[in-house]
Amino acid sequence: RSHLRLNTMLRPLIRLARHGSLGKRWNSGSLALSPAMMKKATRQMLAEIDLIVYDMAGTTVQEGGIVYKTLQNAMREDGLTVSNEDMHPWHGAKKEAVIEHFAQKAGTPEEEVEERVRRVGDWFVNAIDDAYFNEAAAIDHIDVGLLGYFRQLKQAGIKIAFDTGYPENIQQGLIKKLQFDKIADAYVSSYQVSEGRPYPYMIYHLMEKTKVMNIKRVCKVGDSVRDIEEGRNAGCGLVVGVLSGADSYGDLMAAGAHVVCDRVTDLPIPFRAPAADMRRLPDLS
Fold first, then answer.
1. Residues 6+ apart with CB under 8 A from 105
2. Which of 116, 147, 166, 257 is least surrounded by CB atoms within 10 angstroms?
3. Listed residue (95, 92, 117) closest to 106, CA to CA
4. Positive or negative, the Cα torsion across 45, 12, 223, 225?
5. pLDDT in tens, 164-205
């Protein structure tokens, strides 16, 4: 598959540099862009976006992969054999689905799977709560200028939302700890919908909460293949992979990302007036 992905919002060319931000020269066969042209070609990438849905761990939250290591340790504590390679494809998945998979793989009797999932899940929640919220926790924004960047997006008329595979209490704690509550228009946990990623339901839920009607005016941003699959399954007009977390450039592009960049703050702030309100009067017929 070609590393250059186009859609109606990105023609004739939009792609951030593979190993850096917009200031680097990009080359694809006979086509090459200077830093100035790269900036010009990509500066309106978000001009037709009304809502950006951000993943949390590895995308907007710098936590060093604690969530995956903790879940892996929780399963090992319960006697399951789970290697790093085994865990990788499950980045971004709901923890119950991960635990159930490895429990069944280990031959856990069907009638005992539910109890094992609950037991391992409880161990995980207690451990991650301590890892994230103790006084020495090294949890921070993925970029030092992240909150300022978000404020610029909002000034450009773009709504900001977060989705995650975290349980609700963990998500809410992180939202408050990192002051995302001061800028978020909405957020949702996979525990509030019937299925988490790669199903698109969290994105639809956030569209409902923010009153965004057109899925083509929604951008999904995440660091894992499941984030990309979620955005594509939802039909988002723009799906962006970031290299600050779980998966590689090749994996993200192969999953269907339109754009891959180093971190979320590489996406340029658009110059535009806020989009007109497209809501209709209630249908009373």
1. none
2. 147
3. 117
4. positive
5. 988 898 899 999 999 999 999 999 999 999 998 999 999 999
